[in-house]
Write a structure and sequence with these properties.
Elements: H1 3-21, E1 25-29, H2 34-44, E2 50-54, H3 61-77, E3 81-85, H4 89-98, H5 105-131, E4 133-135, H6 141-147, H7 168-178, H8 182-186, H9 200-204, H10 208-219, H11 229-244, H12 246-249
Parallel strand pairs: 1-2, 1-4, 2-3
Helix pairs in contact: 1-7, 2-3, 2-7, 10-11
Length: 261
């Protein structure tokens, strides 16, 4: 990948899209991770007003501090960048109290994790509506089109996706070119939906480098039986996640009524 040319292309694409849409700027949820750091920097480089939202919900302190330092660093470099800190913890806690208890606490825990992402999406669109901004997504190609590692109508609810055609390794290459803070580049990727320090790899069972490899092999039509050991394990993990999350990646199914009816 020609990193400089790709970076400039994305910035130009963002500018053109915003101009054609007749909007004033962008709003991005900044988590302290590499994807949101790259996306927010790309938006800032367009010259359009760029609002970075920090939206902790029982967040691990390291994630919060990384996000804040990144936004402050952006503000020093770009006059068009602004920041808002929205503490969604009380909102989340109130919602949890309003919901009935269930027998399976594990299922409830997973559902509430996705609820966090949807509360953040709601907040992003609140500010987008106030300012006539577009919500910029932060998903990469592996997450969005490989394993579906995002929340439907949560972090998947966006207006445009600047880095969704970049593999995770390519996102890191752009981050290095943009001189994103070293602490963000070296931090273990995490979705920040659990209130602890679990990583994406903990949840997925494979690293992004491994999943990128599996995604390419799947496109080549490789069969599971051609692999052994860890490669076979990773490939099976990828295929399982890809199949389970097709409902996120495919268009919403529509019941088409026959004309004769």
């Amino acid at each position: 990948m020609q990193v400089e040319k790709v970076t400039k292309y994305i910035i130009s694409w963002l500018k053109e899209y915003a101009t054609n849409a007749g909007v004033k700027g962008f709003v991005i949820g900044v988590s302290g991770g590499i994807d949101s750091a790259v996306t927010s920097t790309l938006c800032a480089k367009t010259g359009f007003p760029t609002l970075c939202l920090e939206m902790p919900i029982h967040q691990e302190e390291g994630q919060v501090s990384r996000a804040k330092r990144h936004i402050l660093s952006l503000q020093k470099q770009y006059e068009n960048v602004s920041m808002n800190h929205i503490n969604l913890t009380p909102v989340f806690d109130s919602l949890v109290k309003a919901m009935p208890m269930v027998e399976d606490e594990n299922e409830r825990f997973m559902s509430l994790a996705n609820t966090r992402a949807r509360l953040r999406m709601t907040s992003l669109y609140y500010f987008a509506g106030l300012n006539n901004f577009l919500v910029a997504g932060t998903g990469n190609k592996v997450e969005d089109f490989g394993v579906g590692f995002y929340t439907k109508y949560g972090d998947g609810g966006v207006d445009l996706s600047p880095i969704a055609d970049l593999m995770k390794s390519e996102v890191y290459a752009v981050a290095n070119y943009l001189k994103i803070n070293e602490e963000i580049q070296t931090a273990a990727p995490t979705d920040g939906l659990w209130g602890d320090d679990r990583t994406d790899e903990d949840q997925l069972g494979a690293s992004y480098d491994e999943l990128e490899w599996a995604m390419m092999k799947e496109k080549e039509g490789a069969h599971t039986d051609v692999f052994k050991g860890r490669k076979k394990e990773v490939y099976e993990i990828y295929l399982k996640l890809n199949k389970a999350n097709k409902h996120k990646m495919d268009p919403i199914p529509v019941c088409l009524i026959p004309e004769k009816l």
